[in-house]
Amino acid sequence: MAQDTGKKREEETDEEYLDLEEAEENQKTKKDQETEAGEKTARIEELEEELEEKEEKIQELKDRVRHLKADFDNYKKRQTTKKDEQVNKEKGELIKDLVPLYDNLDRAFKSFEKNDDKDSFVEGVEKIYAQFAEFLEKREIEPIKAEGEKFDPKKHQALMKVESDDHEQNEITEEFERGYTYKDEVLKPSKVKVNIKPSDSEGNGDN
């Protein structure tokens, strides 16, 4: 009887030991789970903070782009206004210089009507012509050379073609209307007559 009682107590002790181990294991597992959950929560919070920082950065970049666009639009407006002001200023200076020439020419005609002095009239017109030449030169407006020059389609416009042995091939024989350049750019081409030599086959047609 005593032996059975001792055996029973040993079994109960073993069960208590197993229960204690299981409880410790469960407690350890629970702690691990809590630790893992805490780490995940911390990571989520960290990611949320990073996301918030990135969103703030994106918003800052958007604001910067918007400001840059506004600054660029304002710059274009200022440049356009400045260009218009410069064009108007140049027009004003052009008119200011042209008006005296017109006045001089007007006075010359009125003087001729009153006095009928051809010599004085011609002399006055020659002075005005010289003033016009100075006016053009001052603004880098130059006449295009034509007669005796080789035909250049960039500078000359052929209104007529002739065949002559007295001139070179494509030589300009006559200028109908003078052309001009402004700072090496063609304002208007010269209107000219161009020599086209007969071909050898046409010249030897009798053969």
Structural overview:
- It is built from three helices and six strands.
- The chain is an alpha+beta fold and 207 residues long.
- The strands form two sheets. It has a three-stranded antiparallel β-sheet. It has a three-stranded mixed β-sheet with strand order 2-6-3, with no helix packed on it.
- Strand 4 and strand 5 (185-188) form a beta hairpin.
- Helix 1 (2-115) packs antiparallel against helix 2 (118-138).
Low-confidence stretches: 200-207
What topology, given as strand order, has the largest sheet? 1-4-5
**Could you tell me the strand content as a percent range?**
5-15%
Average of per-residue pLDDT values:
83
The number of strands is 6
Assign the structural class, choosing from mainly alpha, mainly beta, alpha/beta, alpha+beta, or little secondary structure: alpha+beta
Main beta-sheet strand count, sense and barrel state:
3 strands, antiparallel
Q: How helical, in percent, are the residues?
A: 55-70%
Rg on CA atoms, Å: 51 Å
Oligomer type: single chain
Number of continuous helical runs: 3
Taking the alpha carbons of the first and last residues, their distance comes to 158 Å
Order of H and E elements: HHEEEEEEH
Characterize the overall form: elongated
